[in-house]
Amino acid sequence: MTSRREPRLADAAEIAAEQGLTPARITGLYTERAENAAGETFPEPVDKRGRARLWDHAEVTKWFAHRAPARLAGHAPPSLAPDTLLNAAEASRYLGYKNSNQVTTYMRDHPGYFPKPDVVEEKGTAENPYRRQLWKVQTLQEWMASRPGRGRRAGAKEAPPLPDVPVDGDPDELLGASQAAALLGYKSVGSFSSSLSQGNLPLLKTTDGVAENAGRQNGRRRWTRRRILQQAAQRSRQ
C-alpha cells in the first residue's frame, strides 16, 4: 500500500514571485474567484488558518498554465540605447506597468526579485538627503527576459538553478540566500526573498552574520544551517 504524498504548500509571496505578480494580486485572484482560459477558478487554499493562506503549489502552477496571456507579455518597450539610465518611474513605464511606482514597490517589498540599480546618486542636502536609483536599459531587458511568470519570453534563459545544499553539514556554517532557498524548498532566490520580506519566515528575521571577503557578496545576509533547518521544519508543519 502506497502512502499519499503530501502536497508542497506555497504562500502568496512565493507564488507571486514565481508568476511575476504581487502577493496582493494572488490574494485578489482567490477572493475574486478569477477564472483562467480553461474556465477554472483560482484554487482554494489548502490551509486558511488566520490570515496566512497556503495553496497546493502544483494546483496553482497548473491554474497559471492555462491563464490567458498577461498584458505585459505583449508589451514592446521603446527603442533606447542599452546604456540609457532610467529612474524608477521611467523604468516602470519602460517595462509596461501602468503604475509608475511598480519598480519602487518591488525594491521595497520584494528584495531580491528586481535587479539592483546600476547607479545610485546621493542627492538633497545634509539635512534632507535622498538617493536616486537608476537602471540601465540593458539591465531591464535582461530582467524582462528572465523574470518569473508568464511575462517571460519563449526561449529566454532560465534563472540559474539553486545549489545542492546538504542538510547534514556543519549546523553552525553560515549560508546565504540561495542556499537557504534550496533548503527551504523554494524554486528561486526571488521566491525566498519575497517570502522573507512578507514575514513568512520568522526564524530568519534576524541574521547570524554577513558575508566577508566574498567580493560582490560582501555584506550579504547569512544564517546558520541550524536556523534554516529549524525554519524548514516549522514551514513543513504549517
TrEMBL record:
Sequence ranges of Basic residues compositional bias: 218-228
Region (Disordered): 207-238
Lineage, top ranks: Bacteria, Bacillati, Actinomycetota, Actinomycetes, Kitasatosporales
Gene Ontology MF, one: DNA binding
Superkingdom of the source species: Bacteria
Protein name: Putative DNA-binding transcriptional regulator AlpA
Species per Swiss-Prot/TrEMBL record: Streptomyces paradoxus
Keywords: DNA-binding
